[in-house]
Amino acid sequence: MGSTRVFEINPDEIDQKAIDEAAALLLDGELVAFPTETVYGLGGLGLNPASASKIYEAKGRPSDNPLILHIHDFQQIHVLANGVPVEALHAAERFWPGPLTIVLAKKAFVPDATTGGLDTVAIRMPNHPVSLALLEAVGEPLAAPSANLSGKPSPTRAEHVMEDLEGVIAGVIDGGPTVIGVESTVVDFAHGKPIILRKGSISKEALNEVIPGIEDATSNHVHHSPGTRYRHYSPNARITILPADEKETLALLQKEMNAGTRIGWIGPVCPDPDRMTWSFLANDADAYAKEFFSLLREMDRQQVQHIVVEPVDEVGVGAAVMDRMRKAAGI
Ligand code: TXA
Ligand code: MG
Questions:
Q1: Is the CB of 145 under 6 A from ligand 1?
Q2: Cα separations in angstroms, 100 against 51, 71, 106, 125
Q3: Does the first or last residue of the chain, that is N or C, have fewer Cβ atoms within 10 Å of its Cβ?
Q4: pTM for the whole thing?
């Protein structure tokens, strides 16, 4: 394909002309990446099988891993889904617009090309002025997976999208770095008791206030969540999760650094900053969430060979951070 157009749009001062131009590309069946509050999404017309297929092709994504439909109007949930349970409506009322994706029984017209052949559809209303303006201008749901090549870390800046998809997609809207940095929480309401299929910044504790007794997915639910089967967030370097304050950690790092290995460190305190190739001091789970994917890409640029990450407490967004860390580490 030709070149990828970059639309710079300040989220605090929406340039409607640029939004309309990006919307026109989408309505023509092209793909345009755009910022959401979580990560950048790779947008295409969600109800158009040809656009959906283009998304899979651009990302190199397995065709059985379904896409999320993004909406800007609450009522669209009833257009896309059948028999929406009252708990799902309560969750949407509480957390939309926001980083919550709701899986429901789909209406027949929602194409298999979007849902990976499943009889359910995932729906989310993003909380970002650019996404909402774009959705309104397009006037129909946009399918938008994270705008990275399949297997790579999700993009939190327009530059990351360009790294992976420049020349492959028609456009990208640069609205600056995303605020949250990890993808939305995905909750399945289509198979009885609501289950968290993917952890995100809306924590189990927060969901529990609206859906008492909500549970995390177990291995029994894997067939409801195809996305969790695939390799994720992999930089070129290997990743290990290690506590900073243990003697063994320091001994291991020193041995590797003596052997000339380029080490990258992510954690609150860096044990040997002078000899690390790269280090990032993350003070809390929010900072890890916001920077983690971006750091994985940065470490690749710095040709880091071994990334060492300190774990965080698995409360609030910390649970999602640890989930992404483990997937990146391949455990
Ligand atoms: O924050 C986000 O959710 C971002 C932004 C762009 O909105 N999008 C995103 O999309 O992370 P993606 O495609 O990278 O991840 C979607 C996840 C996958 O794990 C997929 O398997 C799951 O949602 N999913 C989508 N439709 C589903 C369905 N019908 N049933 C179960 N899981 C579904
Ligand atoms: Mg993704």
A1: yes
A2: 24, 12, 17, 8
A3: C
A4: 0.96
How many angstroms does the Cα of residue 197 sit away from the middle of ligand 1? 10
Distance 226 CA to ligand 2 centre (A): 12
Question: Residue 151: nearest ligand to its CA?
Answer: 2
Do residues 120 and 186 make contact, with C-beta atoms less than 8 angstroms apart? no
- Least confident range from 105-119, 213-227, 247-261, 278-292: namely 213-227
Model pLDDT, residue 258: 92
For the chain, domain boundaries: 5-224, 238-328
Ligand with smallest separation from the Cα of 124: 1
Q: How far is residue 243's CA from residue 159's CA, in Å, rounded to a whole number?
A: 31
Q: Which CATH class is domain 5-224?
A: alpha beta
Residues 220-232 pLDDT 10s = 776 666 666 566 7
Of 42, 70, 100, 183, best ligand 1 pocket probe by most atoms within 8 Å of the beta carbon: 183
Question: Tell me, what's the pLDDT at 228?
Answer: 61
Confidence class of residue 243 from pLDDT cuts 50, 70 and 90? confident
Task: Name the residue at shortest CA distance from atom 31 of ligand 1.
Answer: 225
Please name which of 54, 39, 59, 62 lies closest in space to residue 229, comparing C-alpha atoms. 62
CB of 198 sitting under 6 A from ligand 1: yes
